[in-house]
Amino acid sequence: MTDISYPDVVNYAVPFFIAAILIELLWINIKGRGGRYETRDAVTSLIMGAGNVASGVALGFIAWGFFMMLWEVTPLDLGTSWWVVALCFVLDDLRYYWVHRFGHRVRWVWASHVNHHSSQHYNLTTALRQTWTYTFTFMMVVRAPLVLLGFHPAMIFFVGGLNLIYQFWIHTEAIGKMPRWFEAVMNTPSHHRVHHGRNPRYLDCNYAGVFIIWDKMFGTFVPEQEEEKVDFGLVHNLGTFNPLRVAFHEWIAIFRDMTQRGLTLRQRLMYAVAPPGWSHDGSRMTSDEIKAHHLSKRPEDRDSPGF
Amino acid sequence: MPLSVLIPVVVIGIAGIAVILHLLGLTAPRRLADRAEALAAWAREFPELPATDAQLSADQRAALILMDTGDAGLVWCFGADTVARPLAGSNLRETKTGFDIRLHDVGAPRVTVTLTPEDRPRWKEALRA
Fold first, then answer.
1. B67 by DSSP, 3-state: which?
2. What residues does each domain of chain B span?
3. Sign of the four-CA dihedral A38, A44, A47, A49
4. How far apart are CA A147 and CA A112, in angstroms?
5. DSSP codes of every residue in A131-144
6. Are the C-beta atoms of A174 and A28 separated by less than 8 Å?
7. What's the pTM?
8. For B20, which of A55, A72, A201, B10 is 20 to 30 Å away at the CA?
9. SS3 A248
10. Is A241 at the interface with chain B, CB within 8 A?
11. Could you say which residues from 45 to 74 on chain A have a Cβ atom under 8 Å away from some Cβ of chain B?
């Protein structure tokens, strides 16, 4: 079975994305709460989203070719039953959790993912501020086990698209908390706001795509604290709306760091694969060091969520 | 969805949202209200580098930050928000209205600061320290 196909759901969702952004904007303007917009920030996010689709068209053949090569060698074929699609969706969401976690803990992968966190706003346009350079992270290998287990590559891309569409609506401040049962199982605006926080408490947590249970299983869940409002953006925020700089700034920074004079080979490698903020001379701080610095100033926060 | 449909939808969608945001007044430049706001904006990004003083630019869109260590930093308005960077290693060029600062940072390459003639000497001294 090699000729199955599924709709490109992300492309079909584009009109829905635009309509939802307009509805959120209208809501914020009528209610005077529930988030904020700024023209250049929003336009940058939307251009990043368009560029992400374009990069998928231009470079998607690499991942597709890799997966079809694996599909040729695997003896397993689970077919296309609805339960296989559902199982593929759940397992791909587990894959997403780990790729996303690597995206925050390995600078090479962070270089691609950082642009999604580079807005100081948190609205539905932020959801579309997506990477142009995912192919260069080589994180496609994390999906290889799914193909080898017998899930067709077309099905894997289909459920990946559904995963991305699910994550669109959680990028909002207009929704407070969902019902308790939903918050317990699913990723929600509240959980994902925390993920976009630059507060020391909220760094490196809530990596889930659709099911928040992965964070609870792997010890990375931090609930949104009523007494600590999320401050959105990067530890050191960008000072540019130029989409090219947004897309490539961290890759260029890695290159500059790795090519400094006087470093050992190990130090050069660490600038690419160590957590973001690592430096050979200790002149920068990783998220662990930022949390430790915070606790040195505010020891009463020790053992509270996120610390 | 064929590209012949997707591309116009994306282009018209982005342009339409941009026009609506602008007409709603959401392109208005932010200004720093006072010295305290500039210091808070600095502490937000560099809590490990305590500031002792801040001096606002003439248009209140940037502030010079002075630190315990004698080093200087810069806070500036960026869209509806603020960005901050230490000034060590930056390049300074004087312009008719103030300074053009190059930060050698791909993610924050350049800041233009508007200053009164009276403010220039102090900024110049701090920026060249």
1. strand
2. 1-28, 35-127
3. negative
4. 24
5. -S-GGGGTGGGGGH
6. yes
7. 0.93
8. A55
9. helix
10. yes
11. 46-47, 50, 53, 57
pLDDT tens, position by position, A215-249: 999 999 999 999 999 999 999 999 999 999 999 99
d(CA B30, CA B78): 7
Distance CA A215, CA A224 (A): 14
Taken as a whole, chain A contains a residue count of 307
Q: Measured at the alpha carbon of residue A136, what is the angle toward residues A130 and A141, in degrees to the nearest 5?
A: 100
| Chain B residues bordering chain A (beta-carbon distance below 8 Å) | 1, 3, 6, 9-10, 13-14, 16-18, 20-22, 24, 26-27, 44-45, 47-48, 76, 78-85, 103, 105-109, 111
Concatenated DSSP letters of A201-234: GGSS----SSBTHHHHHHT---PPPTTS---BS-
- Domain regions of chain A by residue span: 1-307
Which amino acid is present at B53? D
Per-residue tokens: B98:
């103030």
Q: Is residue B36 helix, strand or coil? A: helix
